Structure formats: structure tokens, C-alpha cells
Protein 1
Amino acid sequence: MKVGTAALTVDAAGMRAQNSSLLLNMIWRERQISRAEIARRTELSPSTVSAIVADLEHSGLVRSIGAGVSRGGRRPTLIGFRDDAFSILGVEMGATHVSVVLTDLRGRVRTHRSAAQQVRNDPEGTLKTVRTLVQECLDAERVPRRSVVGLGVAAPSPVHPSAPGKMSPLILPAWRGYDVREALSTTFDLPVFVDNDANLGALSECYWGAGTSGEDLTYIKLATGIGSGHIIHGDVYRGAGGTAGEIGHIAVDSAGPPCLCGLRGCLVTLIGSGALVERARELMGTKGRKAPTIREIVEGARAGDPAARQIIDGLGQYLGVAVAGLLNLLNPAIVVLGGEISSVGDLLLDPLRASVRKRALSTSMAETRIVTSALGDKSIAVGAATLVLQAALRDRTLFPLQHVGKTA
Amino acid sequence: MKVGTAALTVDAAGMRAQNSSLLLNMIWRERQISRAEIARRTELSPSTVSAIVADLEHSGLVRSIGAGVSRGGRRPTLIGFRDDAFSILGVEMGATHVSVVLTDLRGRVRTHRSAAQQVRNDPEGTLKTVRTLVQECLDAERVPRRSVVGLGVAAPSPVHPSAPGKMSPLILPAWRGYDVREALSTTFDLPVFVDNDANLGALSECYWGAGTSGEDLTYIKLATGIGSGHIIHGDVYRGAGGTAGEIGHIAVDSAGPPCLCGLRGCLVTLIGSGALVERARELMGTKGRKAPTIREIVEGARAGDPAARQIIDGLGQYLGVAVAGLLNLLNPAIVVLGGEISSVGDLLLDPLRASVRKRALSTSMAETRIVTSALGDKSIAVGAATLVLQAALRDRTLFPLQHVGKTA
DNA sequence: AAAACTTCGTTCGCACTGCGAAGAAACCAG
DNA sequence: CTGGTTTCTTCGCAGTGCGAACGAAGTTTT
């Protein structure tokens, strides 16, 4: 189990691990597939495929699920992935809440819990809440610790690749000294993976949403803050310091209002939830002085309220400036918009696309699809679980098998 | 030699190929290293290392170069990479010239030729010029075709990953129907690799310039056009449609002048060579109405001419807007500025860094170094050759060995 | 100067892997 | 029911990396 820095060498065992991983991924993707078909696609010999499938079957990750249709001879035995073989925990730490999901190996939510929690200034309380909710999820489904692959965490902060678990001292100063990974890993005795929330939203879309086949994708989270995450070559791209995707602080209007970060006209100051709500209070009838919620803006826009429509239009236009820059620089295949406000769909996409078209090269536009997320409000937490799934599908040893190596 | 789509399977031969590649790269990087040291670093067994090195030695890529210093026992035999074992051709197609280099396996230029050539509207003439220059380079060094690994081409156009060789119909409409790769590959009977010029500038920096150890890097080419290239995980990143890095058409000033591309305030309209020269004519003494050249601006700035300094300052400020966006979105470890104007060094870097600091999150700034290129005017052509080198170091079979497989 | 120790590189048998040929099993078509 | 087809397994083979043992070539100690 070499985990050295350079170690990319292969020996006989590594060869098996690699091919085994390839097959496992193929079976997972196809849901059901015969040995013969696997052999054809991978160009591995039938004998090798049989041997590896036997291994996988023995470890409980796949199983035979009856016969398929004949192609003019003996009917193939279909192999299926056992989605329920293990569970995965996903945690979302939002700005004002914590939410936990327990999923199977297909990203389906089996149980979920959430609670209001001030995350920004209360690390101790947040960790306690997370622990409680996680335990509740485990208890609710009577899931033994043994059958949990790991725990993924979505944090509202950039995460440095070399120190996952530590929060950014600039974004979450109160978390100085805390290590989320460390803390939860010791509590539950599980592998813990931490990443930025927008990155995990992107991963979620890549696996369960708009990402059809692992193409490069960018996810933009429209909420209190504006964040984005990139999937490049099937992997979350984090940049040199883990801050790739901080689209919220791109300056789109040099004459705009000042931002907490010290700049002017940041995207977040113009289209963050706070700004939208503020704008709504100005434009919409302020019944009793109470500021409307994002949900009300969404409903208003759907109902045809001109003020709400106007807010969405403005959002689309500003966002278009940033997205145009994104397309020119990165040229992703898909851009997905998430966050509550994105549920207005075309009402947002139309002005956005128009704004982008005015600003991006037509070559980069032509190949890029811009869509809104179809995943629900648990997409970030599910994305956190997906981070674990992705790691395990690549390295089978992460599955908590009884390690029945044939040597034993 | 499986080159299928999915094929990532490994058999015994693939295992050897992979380990062999690893060693080859290590020897290339270290220049000289003993078998024992290789074994320690790779965690391969000494016997395996010896066997593979024998293979490589037999193929002429490496050789023994005497003994190293003892570590308290027998002195190690140092193995060195034979930089001169093969040659590589690199071609730069600029806006108004074509330039060809013949390099060794260490990026050193052995011969070079260049000629004025209108590339944009004259595909036929351009290809002819390229053929002539390449042949001249080969003749000058009496290099037999057999010892050339391949030919790399830097094109002033985005290159679509699925059709390298075809130019973008929007940028170079006159090239419709031409396939550079096809054309040159048949002429010289060599593998041909084509990529965008800025991408290859980035690759050049990654191998021979500011890129110290394969960190993520962005290169920005300041010339007639403004382009950029990203190196991610040691590889050129091309995006979904090959247009990643089109930084030149990012809008930095919504009130700016209209651009050929149809937008307003594109970076290129503000800091492209044309704009700089135009500005210079306004500010500097226009002796005899003749517009100054970029070179004159550089010299003026160095000599302390306030007008030239002012131009450079403006350049730095505008560029800073785009770079700030780049840092927030991609968070590279290094940003390298290339192109003739970048030779003013700190005179440009100071205002640029100040501009960036005003606009980028301090977290992404902290980890990013911004520098000017130290490579000469042949860096793009050398980058084209490097593309070939990179491919061959990964897949040894690209070296035109006499394929003396031990079976023969 | 000789002996003891250290490091380097090679040799050889072993275990494991994937492959290919052969064969058994299962199915379809006439 | 027979011939052809496809699926899957069995078994011997070739190639690979590993580990132990060994010789080679230095350095350090006696």
C-alpha cells in the first residue's frame, strides 16, 4: 500500500488493482453488463475478466443478476453493481445550517437530518451539531459503522489541498486551530474528505445532474455568497492554493458598491442573496417593511410580477459578465447554476445567455451549454458523499471489506 | 499498441512500459542518477531498475557516465540522459512570420530559421515557407530524418482537441479546408503535433522557464493579440472546445472601444500591440508621423521616458483586471507574462501587481507568483518542440528506435 | 596493510498477472 | 435434433517485479 509522493510504479498487484478498478467503474456506470461485453470494451481477455469479476463478487461489490438477451448463442450473465453494499455520509456546512445525508453507492439519499446552526462563528457548536446529526442518521437506518465507506464534508470556505480540514483564516477566522477532518475522523473512526461547497456542488452535478459523461463542467452556486467549482478531467480542480472558483469576488462593475473583501463591484455585492433581497425591498411592495425572501422573489417571478422579473433580469446580466470571462478563460462544456434562485429556470437563463452572448467569443459559446440545476436542495451534501464514492471507486481498498485477500 | 478510446487496461507489457516511462522521466529530470538512487525513490526493487535501465541503455536513450561519489561503499554508476540522441522540430506560425527551430531533447536550439510570411490569409504560402525552413534546418545540421522524433506546430488559432490541424474558421477563415497536421505529416513522414501558440508558450515556461516543478501555471502572451495558456497537472489545458485561454476578449472596460469580435472593451483593444502603438503616437513625440514600434516603447520606458512609462502603467492596470479574474477563477501557482513588451520587467510588473492586489482575493494572491518570461523570442517555437518531447517522454515508442524488441 | 563494514549492481528462483487455446455450457435456427 | 454461435471457465505459458543471495568495489576500523 504505497502512498508515497512519487510512487506511480506498477507491480503485479498494482496491475490487478488498476484493472480491477477499471472494471468496477464500468460495472457501476453501466449498472448491468455481461462479462463478455466487458471483455469487448476493455480489450481484456475473457479469462481475465472472469477472474476479476469473481474477485469483485467475492468482495460483495457486484453480483450476478440473471441472464441478458442472447446475441445468437448462450445468454450472457449480467453483472450488477450492489448499490446497497455500503453507505456513505455527506455533510453540508452552510452559512446558517448543517445538513447531513446518508446515501447508498448510487447517490440516493436514505436518510437525512438538518438543523439550524451558525457555522461561521461557532466551530464548537457546529461540530457538535454535525456529530449529533450524523449519529441520528446512522441510528435511523440501523447502519453499522462497518458498512460506511466514509464521510464527506462540504465547507463554506476554500480548502487547501495540503491541509484539508483546515478552514481559510480569511473567510472563517473563528475556525483557526480547528481541523474538521481530524475532529470527525477520530469521532467516527472513518475516512473523512473535506472540500469547498461549490466544488462539491460541481461534483454532484457531474455525477447526478447535468454532467452527462464526465465532460468539463463549472458549477455556480447562487446564494448568500457566490461560489463556483470546476470539474476538469473528471476531477474537482482546486488550483494551487485551493481557491480556484472564487467567482464571487470577480469585479464586474468598477463603479459598484464596496465589498467586505475590500474590492469594489464584486459579483457577490451585486447578485448575492443580500443584494437581491435589498433590491426586492426597493422594487416590490414592501408589505410591512419586512424584506422579502429569495423564495418570494422566485414565486413572484414565476407569477409574472414585473419587479421580481426585473431582479432576475439584472441578476442574469451581471452574472453574464462573469460567465463570459469564465467561458473565454476555461471553456467548459457545461455551466450549471445552482442555489435557490436558480429554480426560476429560463427566466434567469434567457437574460444570462443574452448577456454572455454579448461578451464571449462565439467559438467558446458554441460548445457550452448553460443550464440550471435539476438537483434538489440536498445536492451539496450529496456531493460531499460523492467525493467519498469517487475515491472508493478508484481505490477499492477504501471499501471497508473484511480484506479477504486470497492470502488469508 | 492499443490506442482505443477507453483502453486504460494494463498487461505485463503495459506494466513495463509504465515503469520504463517513469524511469526515463526521472533520468531526464535528474540528468544523472544512479540505479540505486532510482530504486530508493521509485520504491522499485534494484533488480527491476537494473533490467529497465539496461533496456533504456540498449535503445540509446540513456548511458553510463562514470562513477558518482561513494556513500560509504561501492561507488554508484551514474546514468545520464542522452540529450543528443534525437532531434525535434518546432514551428511557430506567427501573425506575420514563420519561425522554425531544431532542438535536442533538452530544448536547446541547434539551428533556427525564420522568414516573413503573412499567415492569416495565405495558407498555401505559409505551408510552403514552413516546408522550406524545416528542410533548411534539417540540412544545416545534416540531421537524418530517422533521428527526428516529430514536429510541433504553434498556430495562431484555437485548436480543437478532436481535430488538431484544423484552424478555427472564425479566427483564420482563409484556412478553411486546410489541415496543417495532415499536410506536414505527409511531407516529412513525421508525427506532427499542433497546438495554440499561447498554450505552447505556457508549456515552454513550464519546462524551461518559470515553472519550477510542474506546478499549475498560466502564460499570457502580449503581442498583436492577447492570448493565454494554462498548464494544469503538467498538461496543457484546452477546455471543451480548445478555446480555453482566450483572455484577449475578456471585457475589462464596458465603455471601451469596439473590438473585431463584436464586443466592447476587450483586453486586446486596450493593450494589444496596435493599441499600445496608437497610444504611443499620441503621447510620444511623433517624429515624422511614423508610429513607434513596441521595441521603441520598451527602450523608451527603460530610458525613463515618461510617455512610455505611462503606456506601460496603463497596460499593467488593464491587464491587472483580467489577471485578478484569472486568479480568482483558476488560482494558478504562477502567472508568466510573455511577448516583446514584457521585457520591461518590473516596470510592468509593479503596476500590474498593484492592480491585481486591488482586485483579487488576498488568499489567491498570496500563493501566486507573477513574473515576466526570461525565455527569448524563440520560446513559442521551442514550446512546439516541447510538445513532442513531452509526448515522447511519456510514450517511449514515439522515439524512432529501430524497435529492437527483445523478441527480434 | 589487513579486516570489517557499507553500498552497488547482478543473478536466479518464485509468485502473480494477463493471455490464448481448448473445451464445456447454454442458446438459437432450421 | 443437429449445426452454428456466444458465453464463460480451465489450464499451461510468457512476461513482470520481487526478494534473497552473491560478487564487486569502496570506506572505515584495527
Protein 2
Amino acid sequence: MPTNIPTDLLRAFVTVIDLGGYTRAAEALGRTQPAISQKLRRLEAIIGQPLLLAEAGQIRLTDAARTLDTLARQMLRINDDIAASFADERLSGWLRVGVPTDFSNAFMLQAIADFAAAHRGVRIEVSSRASRDLRTALAAEELDMIFAIAPEDGMPWLVQSFRVTPFWAISAAVQLDPAAPVPLLRHPDPCEYADRMRSALRDAGRPWRTLLVCNDVEGLVAAVRAGLGVTALTPATLAAGLRRADVGDGLPPLAPLRIGLFYKHARLSRAGHGLAQSLLARLI
Amino acid sequence: MPTNIPTDLLRAFVTVIDLGGYTRAAEALGRTQPAISQKLRRLEAIIGQPLLLAEAGQIRLTDAARTLDTLARQMLRINDDIAASFADERLSGWLRVGVPTDFSNAFMLQAIADFAAAHRGVRIEVSSRASRDLRTALAAEELDMIFAIAPEDGMPWLVQSFRVTPFWAISAAVQLDPAAPVPLLRHPDPCEYADRMRSALRDAGRPWRTLLVCNDVEGLVAAVRAGLGVTALTPATLAAGLRRADVGDGLPPLAPLRIGLFYKHARLSRAGHGLAQSLLARLI
DNA sequence: ATCATTGCATAATGGATTCTTATGCCATGC
DNA sequence: GCATGGCATAAGAATCCATTATGCAATGAT
């Protein structure tokens, strides 16, 4: 007989974190402040460890709380999926979505566009920046929902993550000279893909030369297609005229990275949950 | 303010399905039969639709119930993950795990072996069969937990699924003759990979010839390495001496398939949940 | 330094929820 | 025709949970 963790306790937990206080969480959830206090206490009793430390007007998370935070958000996402599956209401609202520059590709935009087409009442504003800027923007509530690279050691507001393995892309018409340094085309630093290309080459003892630094993926793809050099792409960004390159071309495999969906449950509208569900269904 | 779906209602729901009756579910959950009845009624009130129809000693699921079943199991899996995260107990027991023949590769076995090494009290018996046989075995409770190909139209006991995109593998030393029929190495029918290879070739108007039919992946890989022909592999099964082949080699892309983890919540021990969690963390 | 303010904890009460016991109903099978 | 197994329903009892009222600690302003 497994332990059932009441959903409303988890909801209270993440709401307190999202809104930074018991009193504000109580307002948002339509309860009084002592009710939230008791919910947190009951949750701590179930978990068997303290979770939130009230400290100088700030909420501090224990280690257990950080672990629970990620899992609780996953569980609430499914809860909201269930609710949405049977609600059958017209979604509407205004959503500010952030995607990393190196992932703002046709695939993601297509998925968002499809959702927007299916829910005409939802206005979506997509903003494309570096992952770390996206996380700052989510914290500051300038964005409602972001996809960003997820640090392996965890980070607040992570709802779901999935692995993406980048690979080398080269023009279909070109063979790499194994004697010459690898001609690298990449995004400007800081960039997870650039990091992975360099560390893979470094580990393999293969020299390289950066030939082009370009902000958007389309530019890199065009340059690769023109035969200028190689870059790291993902299955979603591999375009016509390009092929994967691998050990056969003298290029070492690239380490996988982890993309995460982040949002604050207490801040996201039903339309936001709908979009999250729709995107994750296509991504996983 | 979103709807919180009480975890215990979902637990009752899947337990009734898993054990095929209210009375048996009541025993398993340590409640009386009317308590389970009422839980189900409350869940139906939240969902807004009838879920289970008692019919001739059998439980029949409505369409809504089938939808809910998958999501409820996902939510309970996370619930049990949370419980396991803070329980910190020695796992022990006996687990019968099923993996599809075309997925019983080193990667999966390694992951299972790692878990077994970390939890010495758990004895694991891995059984490798065709996906459809695995599902029958799960239904008959000859297996506790299976990975199997998930039909797109849903199927009972699906807890989590993820996409796998197969690709063509060819010996690194060989070029395919574009004029000749594609030399196919494959598993015996029924096989999802074989289906995908044939339908991709058929759609592309490319003729093929089956050169070898072999039950296990290792045999196919050896044959591909020897230069006999091509087969469909996944990232986890791609071995040394092999390379991906793609449109550049005259081979059309293969359709992705969906692998699912299936188990009956009411039947799976804590050790089983631990293994599920451990495997999914490495797969997603 | 003092006092008001903000924010969480705690106690006690009332109400709502949910379990149990008791019982009824409807199949199926002998 | 009657017993049996299995779910539904009703009513009482126990539990759970939210509220009001109040206390306490920390912060910040005068």
C-alpha cells in the first residue's frame, strides 16, 4: 500500500514557492493563511523532513524541498492535463513563451503555431534568447513559460525535461579533410552546443578553427550547406542538403544535453497548461 | 484555480482496473468495498463522466476511463517516485521484467544490471519476447513490468511512453549500390522495425530483398558489419564498425515508433517502482 | 530605542468530508 | 428456486480540514 500524496498539498507547496510567501499563496488559492501553513505542515509530515524555512521575509528551500519541487511540478502537470482533458473549454489568453536561440527552430515554432491555430483565442508571443536569459526572465515574470537548457544539478521551476543528442552536420557534397583542423561554425558564447563541440574535439585530440560565429541557426545551416564547415545540430534542425557526420568523418560524438520546460504553476493560465501539454506531447 | 484531483481517487481507479473488481481493490487498499464505490463516484463527479460500468462480473471501461487510465498511471508513477525519494529503504523482492526482442540490447540490460547492483536485495528476471506477447504476459500476470511498443491508439496499463526514431545502419566500409534492390536484414515478422523499413522503401518506390532474418539484434549487427546488407537500428543499438545511412545513400527516413513502459500499479512492488524510475531517468 | 507592520505559527471550534456498518438489489450458477 | 458474489445506497460515526482568534518574531520607520 503506497503512500498517496494529496495533490492539494503539492499545489500549496509550489504556489508558496512561486509567489514567495504563505499569505500570497493563500490569496491565490482562495484559502486563509493558516490553511496553507497546515497544508505545508501536513506535507512535511508525509515527507518526513522540513521543507520551507521562513527566513527574513524570504522563503528558503531545504534540499528535500528542491527535490520535491521538480517532482511536484511534474505531478501537477499531469493533474492539469487530466483536468484539461475533460474540461473541454475554449482556451484564451495571452502567453509569453521563451525558447532558446539554438532551439527556436522551425519544429518548435510549427508546434506553437499549430496550437495557436487550434485555439484562436490564445495570443502567443515567442521570445528567443539565450537559455540563461530565459531563466532570469521567467524568475522576473517577464515570461510565462520557457524552454531552456536544464542544468544537470537541477533548477527551480523545472516541470519536465528530455534529452537531446546533438550531432555534427556537414554539407552532403563535402568530405572533411582529416589532416586539417576542423572548420567550426557556431553560435556566440555562451552556447551549450559550442561547448560540446569544443570539448568533444579536445577530448579526441583533434584541433579546430572557428570559421564563423552566427546568432541564428538558419545562418549556420546556410553556411554548412555552402560547405564552409561543420556545426552541431539536432534532429529537429537538420535541413536538406546536410548530412550527419560521425566517427567515420573523424568527428567524435557529442555529449547529449537536457532541454527543460519551466514554468511557475501559480502563474500559468489554463491556456499555458494547454500549450505545455501540446508541446510536450510532440517532443517526448 | 485549477482542479486538484485527489491522488487516492486515482489510486482506487487503477486498482479496480488492475484487480478487476471493487471488492478486490478494497482489500488491496485496506478499505471496505463501499469506500471504493464512493471514491469512484467522486472521481466520476470530478471528471464529469461515467468511468466504470459493472457488467456481468466484469468491469468495462468507458472511453473517458481509457483516457484517464493512462494519465492516472503517469500521475501515480510520479507520486510513487516522490514517496520513494524520501523513503530511503532497502529495496528487495523478485521482479519479472519483459523487454521486446528488438530492444533487449546492451543499453537496457546495462541499466537493469546497474539497478540490480545498487539494490542487492532485488532479484530481476528479464524475459525477452515480441511486444505483443509481452502485453499478453502482463495481462496474465506472468510479468510484473514490461517495455513494449505502444500502439498509437492507446492501450491499458501504459504508464509512460517515449519516441524512438530508428535509422538505417550499414557497415562503415560499404557503399550501397543505388541500382540494386536494398539488401535487407531484419527480425522475423511481426516486427515494427521490419514494417517501417518495408513501408519506407515502398513509399520511396525502392525495391528490396530480404537477405537475412534473425531473432536477436546482435546477429543482425554482426551481419551488417560483415557487409551483408542494411537494417534498422536505434541510437542505443548502433555499434562500432557501423554507420548511419540516410537519404545520401538512397535510403528513405524511417518513421518513429513509440516505446512504452507498462505495469499494473496494484501489482507492482516498491522495488518495481524503483526500477521503473531508474530506467525512465536514463531513457528520457 | 520604540512601535507599527508584515508574515508565519498555533489553538480551538465548527463544518464538511469520508469512512464504516447495515442492508438492498441484481445478476449468475447450481 | 435459492444461494452466492458483487456493487449500490443509506445513515451514523469518526476524521479531517478550514476558519477565526491570537501569539510571536523580524523588519523598518520615526
